[in-house]
Amino acid sequence: MAKTISCLYKNTSQLNRFIDLNELDEYPNLLVQVFTGNPESLNIAKLQKELADKLPFAQIAGCSTSGEIHEGRITEKQTVICFTVFEKQN
Asked: For residues 17 and 38, what is the distance between their CA atoms, to the nearest angstrom?
């Protein structure tokens, strides 16, 4: 079974609070998908490092977009991060 939650990225402290609140660093089977309408390489590299430092076991993938969907709304020039937790089944 898998569970996905998402956040609209604003800054490092907000991202860290979201990760801590949802205890995402507790899951070894975690997929992080980054959808960004702000594809400047410095921003992407910074976010990639933040995620890798906070979630070292996560698999991280990303892409640029011309519109992002968060909580049923379309945004532009924002970054949405989706975290999918995979629970092992016996």
From this structure: 22
Region of 47 please: left (phi>0), alpha (psi -120 to 50) or beta: alpha
Distance CA 77, CA 52 (A): 23
The set of residues, in sequence order, having a beta carbon less than 8 Å from that of 60 and lying 6+ positions away, is 32, 34, 48, 51, 52
* Dist CA 47 CA 51 (whole Å): 6
Q: What is the pLDDT along the chain (90 residues), one digit of tens a residue?
A: 899 999 999 999 999 999 999 999 999 999 999 999 887 777 888 999 999 999 999 999 998 887 777 777 888 888 999 999 997 755
Q: Which two tokens stand for residue 49?
A: 């490092």
pTM comes to: 0.88
Q: Which residues contact 20 (CB under 8 A, 6 or more apart)?
A: none
